[in-house]
Amino acid sequence: MKDIENRLKQEAKRLLESGEAEVVLAYGRGYDEKHPMPYAAKAVSDVDNIVFDEYCTFNMTRYLTEYPLGTKIAIAVKSCDSRTLIVLMQEEKVKREDIVILGIPYRDMIDSKTGKAIDNSTACNLPNPVLYDILLGDEVTERDDGSPYDVLKELEEMELDVRWEFWSKEFSKCIRCYACRKACPMCYCDPCFIDQSQPRWADKSPSLESNLMFHLTRFYHLAGRCIDCGECSRACPVDIPLHLFHKKVSKECEEMFDQVSGMSLDDKQVMVDFKMEDSDEILL
Amino acid sequence: MLKKIGLEKLNEFVSALIEKGTLFAPVKGDAGVDFQEIKNAGDVTLDFYNTLQSPKCVFFPQTDDMVRYRLKKETTDIEEISLDFEPRIAFGIRPCDVKSFEIMDKLFTRGGIVDPYWESRRKNTTIMGYAFDAVDPADFYGAFGIHAADTTGSDVFMVKGEKNLLLKAITEKGEKLLSSVDTLEDALEEDRKYFEERLKKGAELETRTLSLEGVAGKLRDMFGSPYWEKVAAPCLNCGVCTFVCPTCHCFDIQDETLFGEGTRRKIWDSCMFTDFTLEASGHNPRTQKSQRLRQRVNHKFSYYVTNFEVTSCVGCGRCTRSCPVNIDILTVVEEAVESV
Q1: What is the ipTM of this complex?
Q2: Domain enclosing residue A125, as ranges
Q3: Are A175 and B63 in contact (CB < 8 Å)?
Q4: A141 within domain boundaries
Q5: pTM of the predicted model as reported, rounded to 2 decimal places
Q6: A112, A177, A262, B192 — which has fewest CB within 10 A?
Q7: What is the CB neighbour count within 10 angstroms for residue B286?
Q8: Contact state of A191 with B274 under an 8 Å Cβ cutoff
């Protein structure tokens, strides 16, 4: 892991020095060792502040849309994060030629809030980045951890009313801080529908109804786009398992349209593409 | 007056408190412990470090109904919501959070306009403070002269021992409450010793700290500094920090109507949100996240000091612990002051 940090620093230095990148999006020191922070290195002198350890869980692609199109950016990505890049490129939010992708072949990240390992029950957990220019280490070998959708089994087996009860309880907890939306790299709408006042799409006060209006709209808006990085659930201060809903929608998209989001730049997203052989289940 | 109750009899005691008024106490939830209105005595827990959200909800709930109305063709029927709040008890409040009430009093009752919602609940509430026995690395209440077993501001102060919960009446209000509950026993000499020892130990527990001298002025002077852009770079601009904060008090007033019937409500708002300062004209004076982060820090450590002569922060560490990207307000202030 220290090797990855060193390589990351080396590459950041080289890219900033040569002018290939105006900014390097990586990870920096936080208030203690267990709490690193997202970090944007803009000068060679910033490079020393870069760190990488198992707590650097942030999906740095979330910051890409803050920069004007055309900014030359180098970005550190882990497996799921690289899939976000593909989606953002498909959506023309960033251009391939503007981005230097520094791939991190590491998967045993730890959620600093829970102290638990991030695995395929909370994220996509692919071993290596799908797309990169420079890989900062050797590829991680595959291992059979099962499918990222295995975690859905329990929910899928619930009776409808029990499942409704489960989600009602979870969404009643929401305090509408919008951390899920703000941590999500795909949530870049400006303004977000929930912030609009004319018309106002949902009440501002948290209630099951208005919370559902917000979350369900967000879930649908991420259909075929979510790449299962799990940032929404990790950001949630009241531990709503948002990733489970996203996983379910992703699973259905895969089953209906035979495509996994963010795996290839050549794909067209399922919700903006039409093929004669597409499933019509969605219309029922 | 020092009383005690065996920890195994906590339920009995809580039931007795429920009889005395609406009880707000810590309850364990999925993500951590939080204050809730208690219906079942068994829900209350004393095993927690500090709650996820602050106890400001006792006086200033996230949604506070003001007026109910029914829109008719030409007129509107309105029903004002009564402010005659029944007596309340806030149970298990950590010393730093008790201090936050005093800071918020300044704004809600001494800022020129009295907020009747805050004031009437505050007047009717008995505060039962609860000593910390450890220090979380994110906390820095020591910077504000608060210590882990500080009894200031509490009506009753509680210390949890191995077998008993010790309760000391600090004010008349507290004395009245304790003497009216017959499930409590009188404390013995050894309990008294233990209680005093815990207060002494509490004063010795060290949190992180920060020198507040000159901070308000320095922050005012560096309003235009590029520092803010740098420090706000990781900020997501979600509202977690403001919602969990015991002293963040900004609210919006909204009419929430369905089929002609509705309620006018106070609802927590957050200076982290883009629509917080959005004006009717469409103009927004704070479009950058660096401006919004600066507002949060300056409001607490500079503007509030100018207006009320006290920093609007108690160092409870909640914003730091809850921040999805680990922004730490103590570090932000420290580095800001160093950058001048």
Answers
A1: 0.95
A2: 2-135
A3: no
A4: no
A5: 0.95
A6: B192
A7: 16
A8: yes
